[in-house]
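Suppose a colleague, Dr. K., hands you the sequence of a protein chain of 641 amino acids and asks what its three-dimensional shape might be. Before reaching for any lab equipment, you can write down a predicted structure in token form. Begin with the sequence itself:
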Amino acid sequence: MTPLAPLTLPDVDSAEEWLETRTREGLAAARAIADHLRAEPPSSALDALRRWDEISLQLGNVAAVGSLFANVHPQEDVRTLAEKAEVEAEKLGTELGLDRRLYDVFAVLDADGLDPAAARLLTKVLEDFQRSGVDRDEETRERIAALNERITELVQEFGKATRDDVRTIRVSPERLAGLPQDWLDAHPADADGQVTVTTDYPDVIPVRTFCHDAEVRHEIVSAFLNRAWPQSEPLLDELFGLRHERANLVGYDTWADYDAAVKMIKKGAAIPEFIDRIAGAATEPARRDLDSLLARFRQDVPDAETITSADATYYEELVRKEQLDVDAQQVRTYFDFDQVRQGLLEVTGRLFGLRYEPVADAGTWDPDVTTYDVLTADGVGDPLGRIHLDLHPREGKYKLAAQFTLTEGVAGRQLPEGVLVCNFSRGLMEHDQVVTLFHEFGHLVHHVLGGHVEWTRFAGVATEWDFVEAPSQMLEEWAWDAAILQSFASNAAGEPIPVDLVQRMRLADDFGKGLQARGQMFYAAMSYWFHTDRPEDLTSAMKDLQAKYSPYPWIEGTHMFASFGHLGGYSSGYYTYMWSLVIAKDLFSAFDPDNLFDHEVAGRYRDRVLAPGGTQDAADLVADFLGRPYTFDAYAEWLAR
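The predicted structure, expressed as tokens, is then:
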């Protein structure tokens, strides 16, 4: 059999024509298959499923490249064209999902004789049709189609507003005392003697962590929290309303009910229950952490009754440095970006039995992007997939950290290709950035290893959405092991990071986890209640939820929700990060902390959790690996200590 070839990417100047062609041909292929299904319905369930899955593959190819290029391509014209391609793919998918003739083809099929994966696919296809509203009257179906198209446009517009609104402050150099020297060297004063600081992560995180000047911290944090405001507020108002109408039209009381029905949590009403459970478990750890934080803050501000997020990061760092003997500026000297990237590849290669072969002529969208073919460790056999690492910030690029699909992997049909999109500095990294890199790479490994199943519908990270973070959250643990860190973390003198420093870092990381959990529940509550209550005044509603869940009070004049990008993709389901973390802590309990590369456990995890993709329910994958259903116990124990 001829080996599958990775996608041939265009050079920067040819991207527009290439994207137009790929979009046109992919959509035409999907339409042609659908026409054939209507005209000559197969009598075989397997044949019908194969044709439908090919439609999914074609639409997925268009949507994936559209989403990626809209977020990473350096040319604005290409980004705009990519957004249109994504909309067109979504539009055709909606049209086919609402097609009664196509639904009738599948509604009469019998699952007898199908293997478990194919039978599962038939169930999912029928479920997708019903959730689409295919059984509604023609007028309702037309309204649903219009809603879906506008919802896609609104999510894109919201993402663009968040991505493109980079705000700045200008301060004199002496007011940046406390910042690392390499950061200061990269930010020289201009002709007016001022330094420009942006709200991009490589600027804002070091400033809020290390800058001694409280006014500078407040100024940059306020600018950061006001990104995309006020322009995104009417977009969100419309988005929440249209999602609610969309859910109502197919029989659900709220969008959260509709969205949760295909997740592990199952019911929208279970989301606030879960939020309150986590918030309750975090109350005492958060109170303990906040008392320590306030005590240190009051050494500098004696009359302070509380502390805001503009000061919290800085004072958390002081507590860790002064009380826990961990200096982040010392720690970062061990994490040179190039060494970390290579270490990441070596660690994950050893853990999962993989080898990464650099590809020099991949022809990506930016010279910063590095590309690797993924093979088995012994090099035997064809490549398992291809990965692209786009890890540094630039204008017009996605501002956070995420894994994007380039192609879904389907056995015998298409290689999995994924892209890691992050915004790290080019020199020294904070350790929490190292942890983030390991986390996001976990998605990439899941995408590749799960990209060899038979059906597009189950390819890669295709599990329930409230499970997808769990494998990545678990992989973070490998960025905390002293022996593993010593294999790639060394300072300019070549000295590996000391074991006792890593041990102190781990203890210091425990400080603040209660505060972090409460903060995450604030975001989760906002995600849920914005979709269910659809408040007229989003700022007021945000303030109320922040007062209930967050350890930090609202900063006057800020509108954090306006750039909370997860309201687009995660919609009402931001709780999923913490839901996944509960599972991740239980997954990690199966590993021996003194031997994180244990071949038997790692191989079982790879083969039973990652490689199956979405061919089974996530709870069943986890139970197969653990030998029991997952529980809350490991998370509760971790949070309490």
